[in-house]
Specification:
The protein is globular. The protein starts with a strand and ends with a strand. With about 475 residues, the protein is of the alpha/beta class. Strand 7, helix 9 and strand 8 form a beta-alpha-beta unit. Helix 3 packs across helix 4, helix 4 packs parallel to helix 6 and helix 10 crosses helix 11. It contains 16 helices and 19 strands.
């Protein structure tokens, strides 16, 4: 895939970039090593000052970088502004909390004495240069939720961003330099996917994190495993959205629409499979379809637009193939299911609701990365759990019920990295984020995330 800005609303190639060569990659890895030697010795106060300055600059740049993001990957301008604001919030949160999250831990005195020590300390020390392989769908947030904790822990970052968001990737490197980070603390590598393995195998790289497709995750995990390097993977998702009879149906429908079409439906943690108890299925389906059909598809730069284009022509083709397969195998298309009847040249697709979805259909097994919802009718709680867990993915989940017994049951048995009751799955810097099964491993955000790329060190002093 060429490294280029291609406007998905028009299909126009606006700017292309040459990938850097082997010599420049080597130079940048050297700079990362040099920067790490210094950055690891800085105190939390200095790191926090740098990160707060980066947050202030991003806040000032919100409108301009939001327009760049919308131009490169097609999300609505309102959503791009919100993404930038979320990054600012996360930067400031880590600047405030990193020191306490990484504070030394002291085992119980009795256990210290029992080990034969006069003193023992557990300390979180940085690993070094961490390679981040990041996707296009949240081109600011995905990077910042790695970079903020990594830099606060004393690591340095190497960003291999998706090839369709090069201007956003270059902006992020510039942002940290403008904030005062020394050269080499955070670098963007304009490279193709074929160069990732060589960089990951390089001894100057200590670890890697990837957010992206399952095949990409398997590739990075395999290479890192061969080199015995730490990885964190956040891969695909096909999140269940369960609605039980006690749910506030109006709120459940309203949130369901947002949960399915946020980011033009291109989000790993978007609700994709809507599993509704038969007692409320017909009412939910009618309201949901009406709301989905009423969404305005169009120019993502306009504030009146609800749903913009998909990121690429291939993304739309892949989504169409899933819908066509479901239709051919007996699914009912309750709304959408086509390209909009409009004069746009870009890669738009109508908000779509499919019913009578069965396990024989590809959309039951694969992730639908676009504004397409699959409806399932279930008879009871156990049936809902069976359908919800019938997926190789396990990123997050949503459950709408006011019954405390049902909440305990779902919290215990849903196979996912998160269970959100009566609200939409969202990431927040104070809460760990990640999945299970083929949705990946490890955690981002919170104290769990910042410690992923630390050497948890036992320091023992003999009696």
């Amino acid at each position: 895939m060429a490294i280029a800005t291609v406007n998905p609303a028009t299909g126009e190639t606006l700017k292309t970039f040459d990938p850097i060569g082997a010599e420049e990659i080597g130079n940048r890895l050297d700079r990362a090593v040099t920067a790490f030697r210094r950055h690891r010795l800085t105190g939390f106060a200095e790191r926090a000052d740098l990160l707060r300055r980066a947050a202030d600059l991003l806040e000032q740049d919100q409108e301009s970088i939001a327009r760049t993001v919308t131009t490169e990957m097609g999300k609505t301008l309102a959503a791009a502004r919100a993404e930038a604001a979320k990054c600012v919030k996360a930067m400031r949160w880590y600047a405030e909390h990193a020191e306490e999250l990484l504070a030394d831990e002291h085992p119980a005195p009795a256990d210290v004495r029992d080990s034969g020590a006069s003193e023992a300390v557990v300390r979180y020390r940085p690993l070094g240069a961490v390679l981040a392989v990041m996707p296009w769908n949240f081109p600011l947030w995905q990077v910042v939720r790695f970079a903020a904790p990594a830099l606060m822990a004393g690591n340095v970052g190497l960003l291999k961003h998706a090839s369709n968001v090069p201007q956003t990737a270059l902006y992020l490197e510039e942002l940290f330099l403008r904030a005062g980070y020394p050269e080499g603390c955070f670098q963007t590598l304009l490279i193709g996917s074929s160069a990732v393995e060589g960089i990951l195998r390089d001894p100057r790289v200590a670890a890697a994190t990837l957010t992206g497709s399952e095949p990409a995750g398997r590739s990075v995990a395999s290479t890192a495993g061969d080199c015995v390097k730490k990885t964190v993977l956040e891969l695909g998702g096909s999140d269940p959205y369960v609605v039980m009879p006690s749910a506030d149906l109006e709120a459940a429908v309203r949130t369901a629409v947002t949960a399915r079409v946020q980011n033009n439906g291109q989000s790993c943690i978007a609700a994709k499979r809507f599993i509704v108890h038969t007692d409320v299925y017909d009412d939910f389906a009618a309201r949901f379809v009406e709301s989905m059909a009423a969404l305005r598809v169009g120019d993502p730069m306009l504030d009146s637009t609800d749903v913009g284009p998909l990121s690429s022509e291939q993304a739309r083709t892949s989504l169409e193939e899933l819908v066509d397969d479901a239709r051919e195998r007996g699914a009912s298309v309750l709304c959408g299911g086509e390209r909009p009847d409009a004069p746009w040249q870009g890669w738009f697709y109508e908000p779509t609701v499919l019913a009578e979805v069965t396990e024989s259909m590809r959309i039951h097994r694969e992730e639908a990365f676009g504004p397409v919802a699959a409806l399932y009718r279930v008879t009871d709680l156990e049936h809902a759990l069976e359908v919800a867990n019938d997926s190789r993915f396990g990123l997050s989940s949503n459950v709408w019920t006011s019954d405390e017994g049902e909440q305990r049951h779902f919290a215990r048995d849903l196979e996912a990295g998160g269970v959100y009751f009566n609200g939409m799955t969202a990431s927040h810097p104070a809460m760990p984020f990640g999945g299970t099964k083929c949705s990946g491993y490890g955690r981002e955000l919170s104290g769990h995330g910042i410690r992923e790329f630390c050497n948890t060190t036992t320091i023992w002093y003999g009696a």
